[in-house]
Every structure is written in C-alpha cells, then in structure tokens.
Design goal:
The protein has about 325 residues and is mainly alpha-helical. It has one domain (about 1-310). Helices cover about 65% and strands about 0% of the residues. The chain is built from 11 helices and 2 strands, in the order ααααααααββααα. The protein has a two-stranded antiparallel ribbon. Helix 1 (about 1-15) packs antiparallel against helix 7 (about 160-200) and helix 2 crosses helix 7. The protein starts with a helix and ends in a 10-residue tail after the last helix.
Length: about 325
C-alpha cells in the first residue's frame, strides 16, 4: 500500500524525490481486513481466497519478470558477478556472510511446503511455481546486478510504467491477504479444538448462535472465536509494526520451520513406515541428511538474527518508513 502511494509520488514529483511514507497506517488497514476475514469459521469457506491469492502471485510475478526482461534487453546492464555482492565494494566480508545465511533462511521458508499445502493445492494444474520463480529471480539479477533490491516492486527497481507497478502491488496486497489466512487458519483451528476439548462445558467457548447477516446469510457467531482471533491478528500486526524487517524475519521463520517440518518429521515418518533398519546404509544417509539440514537451519537463523540486530541499532520502534 505504501509502495502504491510512493509510486504515484515518484510519477508526479520525479524519481529523485524521497517520497517516504510511514507504514503504520497501512499495517493497521491490513490488520482490519485480516480481522474480518479471520472470523470466517470454516477454513474451507476460504478456498476461493487461496485460489485468488495464487492467481495474484502469478500476476505480479509475470509483471516483474516482463519488466526485468525489458530492462535487460534495453541494454542498461548493471554491474554483476558470479558470486554476487563484492566484498570491500558493496559489503564487508561479515555482512556478506550473514546475508548469505539469511538468504538460505528465505529459501528455506519458500521450501517449507508442508505449511502451505492448501495454497499449493489451489494452484493452477500443471503450474510449476518453482521453475517459474527460479527463472524470474535470474532475470532480476541480470537486470539489476549486485544492487538487486530485496523486493523488486516495493523496493523500486522499477518506476515506469507506474500504473503497471501499482497493478502488481495490488496483486501483492491480495496475495498477502490470502497468504495470511492460509497460514493462520490452521493455527486458529488447532487452538480452538484444544480449547473445546479442555473446557467442554464452557458456554463462552461452545456457544455459537446463528445470526443472519446482510449479503452473507447465516453466520455462526462465537464470542470466543471473535475474541481469540481478533486478539491474535492484533498481536501479529503490533509485532509487524514493532519489527518491520521483512526479509530477516522471513529468514528466521524459514530457519525455524524448515528443519522440523520439512526434513526431520517427514524423514522419521518415512523411516518408521518403511521399517528401515537402524544403522543400515539408508538409515545412516537419511540421518546424515537430517543433521546437514539442521546445520543449514542453524546458520540461516544466525544470519537472520544478525541482520535483525544490525537493523535494530538504527531503528525506532513503531516508526517504520518506506
């Protein structure tokens, strides 16, 4: 949202103007939307939102890919190298090390398919998102070189055509709205099921009288669901306003979720199901993979934490500016 406002400012005032805007009000708007959507009781009723989010992802990726190709073909080649940023020119050796580890965390977050299985199922049949996004990233690097922004649309790798950039950012907004629900709805369901089992006689938790709402139909109102889900969304938005370090937080979440959810538990389930004998060659190699991925997760977490600590040294709480 802030990027859309800045895009209009750049178009009117020129690309050399700062056009900085504060992000808090846009985070609050996002939070209000998520509070409303979070009140939908059945996750399956949000399947349309997941499908729309998948289409939006394809839309803004296509726009970014097309603009990157156009920039590269235009002959305005940026400085680039096989190993990325240059030590002593772009960054220090330690900065490059931590950035590499953080990037591993970002990749790990994208690889943690088990947490976004529903969104994958909603993707168009035959759509190879991994291949598409890999090719897209290579085109960005060929266009911007070592100065490729962390977010090529909101980081203003492009300025014109501004209306196309705004369209892509609208796609991103819709995608993030859907992605938030895809990640949070399973958490809502798990907590509510636990509470139902823990306090089966609580009217506050159990009662959900039907209410007729205009344009919606009959809605099963639950005071517990409203309080719990609203509180959760408010907490996440406050944390986002307090720590608006998108790539670093993403890397940290990826590092935390990658090893247990994508590596350890699936491999242990495979070993148990296939009854692989302990200390056999297959058992040894599988557990070696588990150990190797654990090391990767630890390094990714270290890089992300180092980036967060560095950013905190110059950051004022609740004063995020784009």
């Amino acid at each position: 949202m802030a990027a859309i406002k800045r895009s209009g400012c750049f178009h009117k005032e020129g690309h050399n103007v700062g056009c900085h805007v504060k992000n808090n009000k846009f985070m609050i708007i996002f939070g209000i939307i998520e509070i409303i959507l979070s009140q939908i009781p059945n996750f399956h009723e949000l399947s349309w939102l997941s499908a729309v989010a998948a289409v939006m992802s394809f839309g803004y990726s296509t726009i970014g890919l097309s603009l990157s190709i156009a920039k590269a073909v235009g002959g305005n080649q940026a400085r680039t190298s096989l190993t990325g940023t240059t030590v002593g020119v772009d960054v220090t050796s330690w900065q490059k090390t931590w950035n590499c580890f953080e990037a591993i965390g970002d990749i790990a977050f994208a690889y943690a398919f088990s947490t976004v299985l529903v969104e994958i199922q909603a993707s168009p049949p035959g759509f190879n998102g991994t291949l598409f996004l890999s090719n897209k990233r290579k085109d960005f690097h060929s266009s911007f070189g070592n100065n490729t922004p962390g977010n090529f649309l909101t980081g203003f790798g492009f300025y014109e055509p501004y209306w196309l950039i705004d369209m892509a950012n609208v796609f991103i907004i819709v995608h993030l709205i859907g992605a938030y629900q895809v990640f949070c709805q399973p958490i809502f369901k798990q907590v509510e099921d636990r509470c139902f089992n823990r306090w089966p006689n609580s009217s506050f938790i159990k009662e959900s009288p039907p209410i007729k709402l205009p344009l919606f139909g009959v809605y099963s109102f639950s005071a517990f669901r409203v309080v719990w889900r609203t509180g959760y969304v408010i907490l996440t938005i406050v944390l986002a306003m307090l720590l608006p370090f998108f790539n670093a937080i993403l890397g940290l979440l990826g590092a935390a979720s990658f090893w247990p959810l994508t590596v350890y538990f699936p491999i242990q389930m495979h070993i148990s199901r296939e009854q692989i004998r302990a200390f056999s060659w297959k058992w040894i190699w599988l557990n070696f993979l588990v150990l190797l991925c654990l090391i990767v997760s630890v390094l990714a977490a270290a890089g992300s934490i180092a980036t967060i600590v560095k950013d905190l040294s110059t950051y004022e709480p609740f004063n995020s500016v784009s």
